[in-house]
Design goal:
The complex is a heterodimer of chains A (502) and B (328).
Chain A lengths: L3 E12 L2 E12 L3 E6 L5 H8 L7 E6 L2 E3 L4 H6 L2 E4 L11 H5 L14 H14 L15 H14 L4 E5 L7 H17 L3 E5 L3 H7 L2 E6 L2 E8 L5 H9 L18 E10 L6 E6 L3 E5 L6 H8 L5 E8 L2 E3 L4 H8 L1 E4 L3 H5 L6 H6 L3 H4 L8 H14 L16 H15 L3 E5 L7 H16 L3 E5 L3 H7 L2 E6 L2 E7 L4 H12 L2
Parallel strand pairs in A: 3-8, 3-9, 6-7, 7-8, 13-18, 13-19, 16-17, 17-18
Antiparallel strand pairs in A: 1-2, 1-4, 4-5, 9-10, 11-12, 11-14, 14-15, 19-20
Helix pairs in contact in A: 14-15
Chain B lengths: L6 H4 L1 H19 L6 H25 L8 H18 L4 H26 L3 H20 L9 H7 L10 H19 L1 H11 L1 H6 L4 H27 L15 H11 L10 H21 L3 H31 L2
Classes of the chains: A alpha/beta (502), B mainly alpha (328).
Chain lengths: 502, 328
């Protein structure tokens, strides 16, 4: 008999063309907090989906309380006491806290109507266990992000869950909220017999709260249920990326560039940006760092004319400009935007490679009477698609059939083809394999060396520190700090986090 | 594994073509007069209109929307044409230009309101359907224009190719080629499709999605007006009820043709010749069932069943696309 509440042995999961998990093991001890780590695409989310019954493994076995199990739906897993708290909130925002907590099992009165008194009483019980001071009748959308997160956990507890999977629970929390959350998690483990799987990119947190750690790399175990005390940060990073942490450095000295290309002057927007000032110099990579919800992507979208700027000025080469739409930005001012969400905003998944790569250049290529055929577009985009080494059987391939990395390359290629002077690049390597990631990093540096000015948004601190020349930190739709990047990870990250948590 | 099958065979159009041939065979053997010169000529006049109506709906389905005002719009434009020719004595050629411009304008209203309010075109065109038809009935006092120039009505009853084919069909087929050319070989056509497939991505790639959606609605109005003119020429008069109350008679063929033809209801995909084949199939079934003499209500019943079947096919297509996307 082992003291594991959950045990996954030799799990293999195949997707067409990809082995997402290859003989992976995962063992969760009773009453412990277990970190599950790995780069994007390493197989973490596949493993979680197998645990929660979204996927079934091709090979391998899953034991819950030493009994072999296989879940055919998330519901079954939930009934067996496994709950996930997702990064995206799964609460119904217009319902009250109580309704959300009791949603799957709403108490009814004799008339068959919902008994709101009992809803409040029952849900209060769970909120009390968590020492949460929230009125069950509060509407969820009135809560702070941190409280919503805690309500999600309360909801999981109310389902009598014994295993909680927390997916990046702190990505949008302040340090104080994070501290409270950790205290709560420790208490839950001690008092409520709960075991926790903790997924995070923040290694500091892992060392702070976890007992054991499992690292996945390319679908395999880089380490399997190691005691956290036997491991240090360097070792953990090496396990995750397969080599020592290596920082590609941008080699420019921006102090000497004083030619401002793009200036934002006291910009206030409809979305709530307050007095934003920033300038982008020629050939510079300007990093925009901040937590989720800091308003970085939103700022870029306002600059592109998608949301309204209420006051302030945008200067291009010291001349004031008004950008009405992304079309304006592209055609008049040669500004392009590589979206963070390539599936929704970056690509037209149902269309082929050629039309995706060429979409930004159609206007320039059209002949008389708006004539345009495939070979004209092909001649224009082919060099860029080749340069980026996009792996596709043909230009007629539907983009949704390509891997994430190749899709991202296409959404980059279309902007290279358009020949913009300024590129806004938003989270360029989310969900991208390591090889493509470093390739994209080199490309971004190369672009800037050739004179393209880049505003880089990324929440990946190492990426920011390796690429940016200067880093602007944003918080709550305001600029809270500016730092010249010296590419020293420890110094830079503490200075940036200092800016955020002041 | 099925690489040996030529690509054309796997397309929706091929399946339609087979169906068309099957139905032609069935009706040729089971009815008298299906292949008669008279019937084929009559078919060609009807199918011409169904193709045009189908195309008018297709270009709005491209945006992921609908145009319920299609029939009302077409009839309004046709009545406007009747008024131009009969009451104002405007020459035929100028009238046609005016009618097409008028149809495009009504389409522009649909598009403009849809884009500006962000309300689904289903609701917008439901409202404009009622508005256009009501206004038209008010202005014409529900009276028809029956004294149209002879040159105009003669064109509608002209018989070509050994008296088998109506010139109206030639107009529709030519329109298909023009639309195919626009979608395949022009910058604007590509942008229309891109905007329909993924408005967010298209907008961020520098396409003015709102403008593209308005163009689609204008094109729809243009084609519906053209259908209106053709119908007027065919029956020799502009009658307020010629497409049924509120133009309802046009709606079923309008949906059937593009959906059968392989146009995705969620937008972003057009099949011009598929729509043409779809319209042919609908007309065939309609005509064949009349010849078998099953009665009007059964015809409607069957067309309804076919529409449901076509929508299921649409779902299957989407599912297939999703499944396809996992396989790399």
């Amino acid at each position: 008999m082992s003291d594991y509440i959950l045990e996954l042995n030799n799990i293999t999961k195949n997707f067409p063309g990809v082995k997402a998990l290859d003989n992976a093991n995962f063992k969760l001890k009773k009453k412990s907090i277990h970190a599950l780590l790995g780069e994007n695409g390493a197989g973490k989310s596949t493993l979680i989906k197998i645990i929660t019954g979204v996927y079934n493994q091709n090979e391998g076995k899953l034991f819950l309380n030493n009994k072999e199990k296989s879940f055919s739906s998330p519901n079954e897993a939930m009934n067996a006491g496994i709950s996930v708290v997702h990064q995206e909130r799964n609460l119904i925002r217009r319902f009250s806290v109580g309704e959300n907590l009791m949603l799957t099992n709403l108490p009814k009165n004799n008339l068959g109507l919902i008994d709101y008194n009992t809803v409040a009483k029952e849900s209060k019980k769970w909120l009390d266990i968590m020492e949460l001071d929230i009125d069950p009748n509060t509407i969820v959308s009135d809560l702070t992000v941190a409280k919503m997160q805690l309500c999600e956990i309360a909801k999981a507890l109310s389902l009598e869950s014994k295993i909680l999977l927390l997916d990046e629970p702190t990505s949008s929390l302040s340090p104080q909220d994070t501290k409270n959350l950790f205290a709560l998690l420790k208490r839950l483990v001690a008092e409520q017999d709960v075991s926790i799987v903790f997924v995070s990119h923040k290694l500091e947190e892992v060392f702070e709260i976890c007992d054991e750690v499992t690292v996945l790399r390319d679908g395999k175990n880089a380490c399997d249920s190691e005691q956290i005390t036997n491991i240090n940060r360097q070792k953990l990073v090496k396990l995750m990326i397969g080599r020592d942490e290596q920082i590609i450095k941008s080699k420019k000295d921006v102090d000497f560039i004083d030619e401002n290309l793009l200036d934002l002057k006291s910009i206030n927007t409809d979305l709530g940006h307050k007095n934003i000032n920033l300038n982008l110099k020629k050939g510079e990579i300007l990093g925009l760092y901040g937590l989720v919800g800091a308003g970085r992507t939103e700022l870029i979208k306002c600059v592109l004319g998608l949301d309204k700027i209420n006051s302030g000025q945008i200067l291009l080469n010291n001349k004031e400009i008004k950008i009405k739409s992304p079309k304006d930005a592209l055609e008049k001012y040669k500004i392009g935007y590589i979206s963070e969400d390539r599936k929704k905003e970056g690509l037209i998944l149902m269309h082929d490679v050629l039309s995706n790569a060429g979409i930004t250049v159609w206007s320039n290529l059209k002949k008389i009477l708006s004539f345009l055929n495939d070979s004209i577009v092909y001649n224009k985009v082919d060099p860029y698609v080749k340069q980026l080494e996009v792996k596709t059987p043909s230009y007629q391939q539907i983009v949704s059939n390509l891997s994430g990395g190749n899709q991202q390359k296409i959404s980059v290629a279309k902007w290279l083809a358009s020949g913009t002077d300024i590129l806004f690049i938003d989270e360029p390597t989310v969900g991208i394999d390591i090889k493509t990631k470093s390739y994209l990093h080199e490309l971004i540096i190369e672009l800037s060396l050739k004179g393209t000015s880049i505003i880089l948004i990324t929440s990946d601190m190492p990426e920011m520190i390796s690429l940016a020349d200067r880093i602007i930190t944003m918080k709550d739709f305001k600029v809270v700090g500016e730092t010249i990047n010296n590419h020293n990870y420890e110094e830079m990250s503490s200075s940036i986090m200092g800016n955020i948590h002041e | 594994m099925n690489n040996k099958i030529p690509n054309f065979v796997k397309t929706n159009q091929f399946g339609l073509l087979i169906l068309v041939i099957v139905f032609i065979c069935i009706f040729s053997f089971s009815t008298d007069g299906f292949t008669s010169r008279f019937n084929i000529y009559a078919l060609s006049r009807v199918v011409a209109l169904d193709i045009m109506i189908g195309l008018a709906m297709m270009v709005v389905i491209l945006t992921g929307g609908l145009n319920l005002s299609l029939g009302a719009l077409g009839v309004s434009a046709a009545m406007f044409g009747g008024w131009c020719m009969e009451s104002m004595g405007i020459p035929i050629s100028i009238t046609i230009i005016l009618v097409l411009a008028f149809g495009s304008f009504l389409g522009w209203i649909n598009g403009f309101v849809t884009v500006r309010t962000g309300v689904h075109s289903f609701i917008v065109t439901l409202a404009t359907m009622s508005i256009y038809f009501g206004f038209m009935t008010l202005l014409t006092e529900a009276e028809a224009f029956r004294k149209l120039p002879e040159a105009f009505t003669d064109f509608g009853s002209l018989k070509l190719f050994n008296k088998y084919i109506s010139p109206l069909l030639i107009i529709s087929v030519l329109t298909c080629f023009v639309l195919y050319y626009i979608f395949k070989y022009t910058d604007i056509g590509r942008k229309l499709i891109a905007a329909g497939a993924n408005p967010d991505a298209a907008e961020l790639s520098g396409i003015s999605v709102d403008r593209m959606f308005i163009y689609c609605h204008m094109l729809s109005g243009f084609l519906a007006a053209l259908a209106g003119i053709m119908l007027t020429a065919r029956i020799g008069a502009a009658i307020p009820s010629m497409a049924g109350h509120l133009g309802f008679d046009w709606l079923l063929p309008a949906f059937l043709a593009p959906v059968l033809g392989g146009t995705l209801l969620s937008g972003g995909k057009v099949t011009v010749f598929g729509t043409m084949l779809g319209a042919i199939l609908v007309t065939l079934i309609n005509n064949g069932l009349y010849l078998i003499d099953v009665g009007e209500f059964w015809v409607r019943f069957f067309l309804g069943i076919i529409l449901l079947g076509a929508v299921l096919l649409d779902r299957a297509r989407e599912y297939f696309t999703v499944k396809n996307s996992i396989v790399s």
